[in-house]
Structure formats: structure tokens, C-alpha cells
Design goal:
By secondary structure, this protein is an alpha+beta fold. It has one domain. The protein has a three-stranded antiparallel sheet with strand order 1-2-3. Strand 2 and strand 3 form a beta hairpin. 17% of the residues are buried. The mean pLDDT is 84.
Length: 144
């Protein structure tokens, strides 16, 4: 008689914890989701640096054009041979604020400058740098 009274108690016992297998499955799913999303996050960050470099190049290009315009009216000014002249001119206020960091790309390299002539003889200036994946980022064209 005593055994029959114990049976209902044993059947009512509930499981209060997860098994090791269930925990491992959940951890595996989380790891897979994290690894997939990290690929996209790193790609997004790389594209953001390229966009930042483009915007910096455009700002440097505007400062260089201002420098060249002033140079045309002031013959004592040195010709633009280096981007550093925009932040440390030989006389007068800088054309680009921010010091050396203003002419440094997001990867720590200094921007390069190329000068040429347009179809109607106007001076064209291009500010550019190269990303770690060897993509050229230029003030002359927007990234696609």
C-alpha cells in the first residue's frame, strides 16, 4: 500500500534545468549568427572609412583651390607643391584647419596631390589616396 502512494509523487516531478545538449545547441546558433553578422559589420566599417577619405579629399581640394586663387593674386606666395602648405602656409592663416590630421587619410597616410590642365586651360587639382584594398579614392570622382 505504501508503494502505490509514492507513484503519483514520482510522476509529478518536473525537469527544472536545460540539458547540456540544449545549451550547446543555443551557443552554436549564437556563434554562427555572430560570425555572419561580423563580416557585414567589418565591410560596413571599411566602406565608411572610404567615404570619410572621399569627404576629406573634397575638403582638401577646396582648400587647395582657395590657395591657388590667392597665389594668382599674390606673387610672393609659394606655388602649391605639398598638401602640408595648406595647414602650414609660409605666410598668413592656414587654408585648412586641423593641422597634420587634416591631410592624413583614415589609414594614417598623407593624401597626394595631382595638378593638371582642363580642356579650356583651367587648372585642375585632384586629391587622392589609396585604401588598403588598393582602391584609389579621389576628390575627382565619387565612389560607386
Amino acid at each position: 500500500m505504501m508503494l502505490s502512494s509514492l507513484r503519483p509523487i514520482v510522476r509529478e516531478r518536473r525537469r527544472n534545468a536545460f540539458t547540456l545538449l540544449e545549451v550547446l545547441v543555443v551557443v552554436a546558433i549564437v556563434v554562427v549568427l555572430a560570425s555572419v553578422s561580423s563580416v557585414y559589420v567589418f565591410r560596413y566599417l571599411a566602406d565608411a572609412k572610404k567615404d570619410q577619405a572621399f569627404l576629406q579629399a573634397k575638403n582638401i581640394e577646396k582648400a587647395a583651390k582657395a590657395y591657388m586663387t590667392k597665389q594668382e593674386t599674390d606673387p610672393e606666395m609659394d606655388p602649391l607643391t605639398s598638401i602640408v602648405q595648406l595647414v602650414q602656409p609660409s605666410k598668413g592663416a592656414p587654408f585648412l584647419e586641423g593641422g597634420a590630421s587634416a591631410v592624413t587619410d583614415p589609414w594614417g597616410k598623407q593624401f597626394s596631390v595631382s595638378e593638371g590642365s582642363g580642356a579650356n586651360g583651367e587648372r585642375i587639382i585632384e586629391i587622392w589616396t589609396t585604401a588598403p584594398d588598393e582602391e584609389r579614392i579621389s576628390s575627382a570622382k565619387r565612389r560607386s
